[in-house]
Specification:
With 71 residues, the protein is an alpha+beta fold. It is built from one helix and four strands. The protein has one domain. The protein has one helix spanning 46-66, and strands at 9-14, 22-29, 32-35, 38-39. β2 and β3 form a beta hairpin.
Length: 71
């Protein structure tokens, strides 16, 4: 990524398939939207799911910044 003013939006999309806790953190840039679908396997553990989803979003953001993420 070049040095430029960037506006980054991180959003979680809940996919809620058959009661599973599945989310897709998305990072939206002018060049496109990077997303990563994930399931924590933590069931109804709300706090655990939120922590796991946030950690995965940060990993995705790091990969986007490094240029390792795929659109």
């Amino acid at each position: 990524m070049s040095d430029q003013n960037l506006e980054v939006h991180i959003r979680f999309v809940s996919l809620g398939l058959l009661g599973q806790r599945v989310a897709a953190p998305q990072i939206e840039l002018q060049s496109g939207t990077y997303k990563k679908e994930l399931s924590t396997g933590l069931g109804g553990d709300r706090e655990g799911n939120m922590i796991a989803f946030a950690a995965e979003a940060m990993i995705l953001l790091r990969d986007v910044i490094k240029g390792d993420a795929k659109l």
